Amino acid sequence: MNSLRAIGKVYKRHPLVGNMLLYVGLYGAGDISRQIILREKTQDSKLDFKSAARMSTVGSLLIAPFNYNFYRILDKVVLGSGARIVFTKIVCDQVFSTPIAICIFYIGIAIVERRKDLFSELKEKGLQTYATGAVYWSCVQTFNFALLPTHLRAPYVGFCAFFWCNILSYFKSRRSQRRDTT
């Protein structure tokens, strides 16, 4: 219980750091969760903790700061929470945030995997990821923008990202049609 209070204090004083710590766990857990779910189908008995570490790294160092700053700016630019405002925020999220976040994810993963072609997976999987995300995140963000105060938006998105990370991890784990040398 004391550790939860300590985390709460860190989050309150330093929300960006708190979000980054949250995303470490959520992105890594999302990857491990995907591995466990798919393990029965692939008969692979070993968990790939390096994959989870890469997801955690990208989630905490790149995605968390991007989300934190994007939602702060969006809430300053588009004020309120009425139906029209919520719709405007969802459109802004899908048009501006989602494509950037998908690029950050695939390029960030390529960097930590030390791939020669940083854009190959983005080119191959980005559009399907965007289409899936448009459905998922539109539902998630309707609740977010309609009901949550600004300071809870990034953590809420982080928790929803756990489920999204399962999806991203699944897309990431699918074999590429093109052979990308590392």
Mean pLDDT: 85
Radius of gyration equals: 17 Å
> How many strands in all?
0
- What general outline do the C-alpha atoms trace? globular
- H-E order: HHHHHH
Task: Characterise the protein shown here.
It is found in: Membrane. It is a multi-pass membrane protein. Keywords: Membrane, Transmembrane, Transmembrane helix. Pfam families: Mpv17_PMP22. The structure is a single chain. This protein is an all-alpha fold and 182 residues long. It has one domain. It is built from six helices and no strands. The protein has helices spanning 2-13, 15-42, 49-77, 83-112, 120-147, 150-173. Helix 3 packs antiparallel against helix 4 (83-112). The protein starts with a helix and ends in a 9-residue tail after the last helix. The mean pLDDT is 85.
Short overview:
By secondary structure, the protein is mainly alpha-helical. This is Mpv17-like protein.
